[in-house]
Design a protein that fits this description.
alpha+beta; 6-stranded antiparallel beta sheet; 94 residues
């Protein structure tokens, strides 16, 4: 049986109290609600609060959290996912 494989795990400090954490796995079968073989969590944390997160929690599929709102996200490929996340992070930076 094929196992999950870690593709990315990083934590980058942007400023005091603010960091980005990116975790991406290639999984043997798609997560329920998603149509691709990746499990991911990309987050921007500011002063202990997650202010931006892209993820594909089982059963919910691909979506993002912006502040307190949860909105659908259309996954195209990993490159686009990372680009979209970085662009949203830029909008939060002072």
């Amino acid at each position: 049986m094929k196992q999950a494989r870690s593709l990315m795990k990083s934590r980058t400090t942007l400023s005091e109290g603010m960091f980005v954490e990116m975790v991406v796995w290639q999984v043997p079968a798609s997560v329920p609600g998603s149509l691709h073989c990746y499990k991911y969590r990309l987050a921007l944390v500011s002063n202990g609060q997650c202010v931006l997160r892209y993820d594909n929690e089982a059963g919910k599929g691909d979506h993002k959290h912006i502040g307190g709102a949860e909105v659908p996200y259309t996954f195209q490929d990993l490159e686009t996912l990372l680009k979209d996340f970085r662009e949203d992070v830029e909008k939060w930076l002072p």
